[in-house]
Design goal:
Layout (H helix, E strand, L loop, with lengths): L12 H8 L3 E5 L4 E3 L7 E5 L3 E7 L5 E7 L7 H5 L7 E6 L1 E7 H10 L1 H27 L2 H16 L2 E3 L2 H8 L3 H13 L3 E4 L2 E4 L2 H7 L3 H13 L3
Antiparallel strand pairs: 1-7, 2-6, 3-7, 4-5, 4-6, 8-10, 9-10
C-alpha cells in the first residue's frame, strides 16, 4: 500500500522497507481535522486515496484552501523535521486511505537516510510553489476557471469520481455556495460533469481543461522540475 503514495514509491527498495516499517495505515473521513493551527505537528501523512487540504481561517470568518495534498505528496514532514507547529488547519477533503508516521520517527529516519530527507524537502518546495500559485490564482482569476482548476487537480489525484458537497467546495475556494452552484449547473448543461447528492463525476475532461486557468500546467511544471517527468 505504501507504493500507492507516489512520493514513497520514489524511494529505493531498501530505504522504502525501512520507512514502511514505521508506517501505520488509516482510513480518514471527510472533514476530519488532522492538524490544528498553532499546534505542534505530531504526525506526518502520506495519502494514497484521500485528499488533504491546508486551510487558512480568516479573522472575519470563513476559510480558504491554500494547498491540496494527495497521492503525489505528504503533509507534515517539514514541521516534523524542525519541531514546528502547523501554521494552518489541515482537513480531509476527500475521504480515503493514508499512511501515517509519528513525527519523531520520521525525523530519525530522515537523518539515517539522506535520500528520504531530500525527497521530503523537495516536496516541501513544491508545496510552497503550490501555495503561491493558489494565492495568485485566487487574486487574479474568476471563479469559473478557478473551479475548473480545482476539479482538474482533484481528478489528477483521485480520478473522475469525487465525493464532495457544493458547500465544502465553496468553503475551500472561499466563495459563496451560490457561485459554485451556478458554475456546476453550467458545467452539467455542457455535459462536462454530473452532480448528485455530494458526488461529482467528470464526464468531459477536455471541457474542464479548456475552461480552466493556466495554473494546473504551472503546477505540473513545478512538480516535474523537482522530481522529473514520468
Amino acid at each position: 500500500m505504501q507504493r500507492d503514495n507516489l512520493l514513497l514509491g520514489r524511494l529505493d527498495r531498501h530505504v522504502l522497507e525501512k520507512v514502511s516499517s514505521a508506517l501505520a495505515f488509516v482510513e480518514l473521513e471527510q472533514g476530519q481535522l488532522l492538524a490544528d493551527q498553532h499546534h505542534l505537528v505530531e504526525k506526518v501523512y502520506f495519502p494514497s486515496s484521500c485528499i488533504l487540504s491546508c486551510v487558512v481561517e480568516l479573522p472575519g470568518g470563513g476559510a480558504i484552501e491554500t494547498g491540496m495534498i494527495g497521492k503525489d505528496g505528504q503533509w507534515g514532514a517539514s514541521q516534523a523535521l524542525d519541531n514546528k507547529v502547523s501554521l494552518n488547519n489541515v482537513v480531509v477533503q476527500v475521504a480515503g486511505r493514508a499512511a501515517v508516521m509519528a513525527a519523531g520517527r520520521l525525523k530519525l529516519l530522515a537523518k539515517e537516510f539522506p535520500s528520504f530527507q531530500t525527497l521530503l524537502l523537495r516536496y516541501d518546495q513544491f508545496s510552497m510553489a503550490q501555495m503561491q500559485q493558489t494565492a495568485a490564482c485566487n487574486a487574479v482569476h474568476a471563479v469559473e476557471p478557478r473551479f475548473c482548476r480545482w476539479l482538474l487537480r482533484m481528478h489528477e489525484l483521485v480520478g473522475p469520481n469525487i465525493s464532495i458537497t457544493q458547500e465544502f467546495m465553496a468553503q475551500m475556494m472561499g466563495v459563496r455556495r451560490t457561485s459554485v452552484t451556478q458554475i456546476a449547473i453550467g458545467l452539467q448543461k455542457a455535459g462536462a460533469i454530473s452532480y448528485t447528492r455530494g458526488k461529482v463525476h467528470i464526464t468531459d475532461l477536455s471541457h474542464i481543461q479548456s475552461h480552466s486557468c493556466e495554473c494546473p500546467g504551472e503546477l505540473v511544471s513545478h512538480y516535474d522540475r523537482l522530481f522529473g517527468a514520468e
